[in-house]
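Q: Sequence in, structure out?
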Amino acid sequence: KTWATPGNLPHPVFAVAGLRVAAAICFDVHFLLQEKIAADVLLFSSAWVEDEGDQRFTLLPQIARAHGLWIINCNWGPGIPRIRTQGRSMIIAPDGSIAPAIAVDIPTSSA
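A: Exactly. Output:
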């Protein structure tokens, strides 16, 4: 996208309960394959809004494998989904596998 560019500083990492934790917000995730991230866990909040498909299911496992870290992705918040990719938060293991999810029937908006 033309409205998002990577910064020139190393990715910030902080300690929580003995783990090295990094955070990414929304479009940041598209730059993470090119960065070196010295973390055990990546917290990734997003508002994924793709009309076709959901790149998170391929992109996030690639990032997890490349950096050998866990990714905790929180996508949107509570409420009635208005966009097809709203919701579907997930946890990805360092080997790229996606943790099993609980199937929940969420009503969709009529808008």
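Residues 56-67 form the longest helix (12 residues).
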